[in-house]
Amino acid sequence: FVPKQAERPITVQVATHDKVVPPRKQHELAKILGAKKKVMEIGHMTRSRQIIDGVIEHLEDGMNLSQQAS
User: 10 and 35 in contact (C-beta within 8 Å)?
Assistant: First the structure.
């Protein structure tokens, strides 16, 4: 089951050098979910500052949405 519109922001982190989950599939997932995409020039499960920055950005989006609803 994939919701047509989530009540919370969704971010899909796309790893362009991923050999496990093809980037094409990652882009498809983002489209299906209506998600924001964070595209990174990394591989699958790469330890990278980009990933941390992406998670922080996603959390900030959620906080902003929550504040707007108040």
Answer: yes
Structure tokens at 40: 């990174």
CA angle 33, 36, 42 (to 5 degrees): 105
Of 2, 1, 8, the residue nearest 58 (C-alpha) = 8
Q: d(Cα 17, Cα 15) in Å, to the nearest integer?
A: 6
DSSP 34: T
The confidence band for 13, taking pLDDT boundaries of 50, 70 and 90, is very high
Interval 18-46: pLDDT, tens? 999 999 999 999 999 889 999 999 998 88
Nearest alpha carbon to residue 11 among 49, 60, 44, 66: 60
Q: Which helix (H) or strand (E) holds 4?
A: none
